[in-house]
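User: Can you recover a sequence for this backbone? Please restate the input before giving your answer.

Assistant: Of course. Working from this structure:
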């Protein structure tokens, strides 16, 4: 069966295809834009994935310019462009996600590796914890909190599709101790984590990084590492700040964060030990 595609991932792949096509023909950006009489930045934006809705006419012009005559190759490239022009489910939550394309990448990732030192990863949050964390972020009127929770729950649908991603979450012990003690939110969230970790049908691994680990490689902050099922889609790292998100795509940058995550996995407690720890915390509440 084919995986459900994400237009965000398709746009990134289309940019890579166009970039490869130009390099294959030994042309500079300036040479191509001059020959096609395009504005100076158009092709740079296309190759740099700085577009939102690829123009099929522009793609055909490039294929003609580079002499791509093979029907299968042309149609595959144009189909990639068509898929890039569709809207993902997250478009209806633009008020929540803003211009971030993270959920678009997340929706097609085959492996999602996340380290969270302060909060529970979004894909593993309960509704009431999601609402509490939104309010704690100085949020927000009630209707805005409701939208954030709705969007976060919609994100979790990726876990229930035909080809759910493998989730590997390393959660700092401090995030568990910060669970809201009111209205049973902490107990509910702990039960949810335990259930997710114990379900044999889930491809979800949860490891707790204990205080006893002391100083560790994750001190620079939270991050998410995304791997994709198609080798044409290079892995990337996502760093989130209060106002925006940052994607790291350079091979060396991704390798550095993968190295950090490997160390965190070794330093953290095993899944079995983490489940025992969370059950003890639940019993003590």
């Amino acid at each position: 069966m084919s995986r459900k595609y994400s237009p965000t991932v398709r746009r990134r792949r289309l940019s890579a295809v166009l970039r490869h096509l130009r390099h294959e023909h030994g042309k500079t950006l300036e040479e191509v834009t001059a020959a096609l009489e395009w504005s100076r930045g158009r092709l740079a934006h296309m190759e740099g994935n700085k577009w939102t809705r690829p123009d099929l006419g522009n793609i055909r012009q490039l294929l003609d310019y580079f002499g791509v005559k093979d029907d299968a190759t042309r149609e595959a490239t144009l189909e990639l462009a068509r898929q890039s022009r569709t809207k993902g489910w997250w478009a209806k939550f633009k008020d929540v996600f803003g211009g971030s394309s993270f959920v678009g990448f997340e929706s097609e990732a085959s492996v999602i590796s996340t380290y969270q030192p302060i909060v529970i990863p979004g894909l593993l949050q309960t509704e009431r914890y999601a609402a509490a964390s939104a309010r704690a972020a100085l949020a927000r009127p009630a209707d805005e909190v409701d939208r954030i929770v709705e969007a976060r729950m919609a994100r979790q649908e990726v876990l229930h599709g035909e080809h759910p991603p493998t989730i590997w979450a390393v959660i700092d012990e401090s995030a568990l101790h910060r669970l809201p003690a009111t209205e049973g939110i902490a107990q509910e969230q702990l039960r949810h984590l335990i259930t997710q970790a114990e379900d044999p049908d889930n491809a979800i691994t949860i490891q707790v990084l204990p205080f006893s680990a002391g100083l560790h490689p994750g001190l620079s902050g939270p991050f998410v590492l995304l791997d994709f099922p198609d080798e044409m889609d290079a892995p990337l790292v996502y760093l989130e700040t209060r106002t925006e998100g940052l994607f790291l795509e350079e091979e060396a940058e991704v390798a550095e964060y993968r190295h950090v995550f490997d160390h965190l996995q070794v330093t953290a407690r095993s899944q079995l030990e983490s489940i025992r720890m969370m059950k003890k915390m639940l019993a003590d509440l």
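That completes the design. The longest strand covers residues 166-172.
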